């Protein structure tokens, strides 16, 4: 089901063999509810968020539950300015200034869920 499936439904059909009559059922209202966001998780490649100076790091964000469509934003050290807006954040040629706490925020348009923070260490 999708949210746009909410509405009023009924069925109808011809009843009787000799003089068929069109009959309709009672109308039923169906309301599809949003699934609240939950279970936002963060993973890294290489695992653990430790990366050698000049190498690449990929952070991935996923939610176990939530009504689509979902939007993503990446944040570092609690900053409101997003670093990216896709489920993956790719850092190429990392430098010392890329070390810190990273977090993913996921929104379904009504609410926002945050991942735990991941400490990224550039070695």
From TrEMBL:
SUPFAM superfamilies: Immunoglobulin. It comes from the Eukaryota. Residues 36-121 form the Ig-like domain. InterPro entries: Ig-like_dom (IPR007110), Ig-like_dom_sf (IPR036179), Ig-like_fold (IPR013783), Ig_sub (IPR003599), Ig_sub2 (IPR003598). This is FCRL2 protein. It comes from Quiscalus mexicanus.
């Amino acid at each position: 089901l999708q949210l746009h499936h909410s509405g009023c439904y009924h069925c109808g059909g011809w009843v009787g063999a000799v003089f068929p009559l069109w009959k309709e059922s009672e109308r039923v209202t169906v309301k599809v509810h949003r699934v609240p966001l939950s279970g936002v998780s963060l993973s890294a490649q290489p695992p653990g968020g430790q990366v050698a100076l000049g190498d690449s790091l990929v952070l991935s964000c996923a939610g176990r539950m939530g009504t689509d469509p979902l939007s993503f934003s990446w944040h570092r050290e609690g900053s409101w300015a997003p670093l990216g807006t896709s489920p993956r954040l790719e850092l190429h040629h990392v430098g010392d200034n890329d070390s810190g706490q990273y977090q993913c925020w996921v929104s379904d348009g009504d609410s926002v869920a945050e991942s735990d923070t991941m400490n990224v260490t550039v070695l």
